[in-house]
Amino acid sequence: DAGVIQSPRHEVTEMGQEVTLRCKPISGHNSLFWYRQTMMRGLELLIYFNNNVPIDDSGMPEDRFSAKMPNASFSTLKIQPSEPRDSAVYFCASSLAGIGYTFGSGTRLTVV
Amino acid sequence: GEDVEQSLFLSVREGDSSVINCTYTDSSSTYLYWYKQEPGAGLQLLTYIFSNMDMKQDQRLTVLLNKKDKHLSLRIADTQTGDSAIYFCAEEGNNRKLIWGLGTSLAVNP
């Protein structure tokens, strides 16, 4: 298995533009998590899905952020419009009922 | 509320043992985890311990759990330069959500 695959690895965009981050979880995993990591706040859980259904989106900062999981093998996190304070590394992780999560390599987002 | 705390930095000499400490608050946590993050990479599950255990050993890694004090530690024996990374402690809360510490940055000096 190739693990959790995220794209793009790096994204630089101008303030106000729409940004879409993508994630392919490990096949067979039924939970998917989107995290944001910054130096100031560490790891923040934004949203997680169980069996493609959003369970808890209380960590989504504001309405500019949205996430979808149309099927078991794909999820997107969209920011529209993006702002400089959204600059961070965004991680996707997946798990199956059991021990721990498997993380992707992350998308480093820079909004200028 | 739920909270996980760890010291931010640790510096050791190559060959020495490293001990990274963590305190947590949710006594109902089933599992507690240690993750490792190398520069530019995602988090990698290093080891975990079930809450009814007090010790787990895995090669150079030893995890100690003091449930009474809600204290978790990770000991790395014979620390190598390749162990330099950020180590995250996490407890499993409700609905399998992990509650994370801010991470301990381990620097290994030759």
Written description of the protein model:
- The complex is a heterodimer of chains A (112) and B (110).
- Helices cover 0% and strands 55% of the residues of chain A.
- The mean pLDDT of chain A is 94.
- By secondary structure, chain A is an all-beta fold.
- In chain A, strands 2, 4, 5, 6, 9, 10 and 11 form a seven-stranded mixed beta sheet that branches. A four-stranded antiparallel beta sheet of chain A has the order 1-3-8-7, with no helix packed on it.
- The radius of gyration of chain A is 13 Å and the shape is globular.
- Chain A starts with a strand and ends with a strand.
- Chain A has strands at 5-7, 10-13, 19-24, 31-38, 42-50, 53-56, 65-71, 74-79, 88-95, 102-103, 107-111.
- By secondary structure, chain B is mainly beta.
- Chain B has strands at residues 4-6, 9-13, 18-24, 31-37, 43-50, 55-58, 61-66, 71-76, 85-92, 98-100, 104-109.
- The N and C termini of chain B lie far apart (41 Å).
- The model of chain B has no long low-confidence stretch (mean pLDDT 92).
Question: What's the structural blueprint in terms of helices and strands?
Answer:
The complex is a heterodimer of chains A (112) and B (110).
Chain A: E1 5-7, E2 10-13, E3 19-24, E4 31-38, E5 42-50, E6 53-56, E7 65-71, E8 74-79, E9 88-95, E10 102-103, E11 107-111
Parallel strand pairs in A: 2-11
Antiparallel strand pairs in A: 1-3, 3-8, 4-5, 4-9, 5-6, 7-8, 9-10, 9-11
Chain B: E1 4-6, E2 9-13, E3 18-24, E4 31-37, E5 43-50, E6 55-58, E7 61-66, E8 71-76, E9 85-92, E10 98-100, E11 104-109
Parallel strand pairs in B: 2-11
Antiparallel strand pairs in B: 1-3, 3-8, 4-5, 4-9, 6-7, 7-8, 9-10, 9-11
Helix fraction of chain A, binned, reads under 10%
CA radius of gyration of chain B is: 13 Å
Tell me the number of strands of chain A. Answer: 11
Task: Identify low-pLDDT runs of chain B.
Answer: none
What's the N-to-C terminus distance of chain A?
Answer: 36 Å
Q: The biggest beta sheet of chain B, please?
A: 6 strands, mixed
Q: List SSEs of chain B in N-to-C order.
A: EEEEEEEEEEE
Q: Per DSSP, what share of the residues of chain A sits in E-state strands of 2 or more residues?
A: over 45%
Q: What are the secondary-structure elements of chain A, in order, as H or E?
A: EEEEEEEEEEE
Radius of gyration of chain A: 13 Å
Count of individual helical segments of chain A = 0
* Number of beta strands of chain B: 11
Shape of chain B: globular
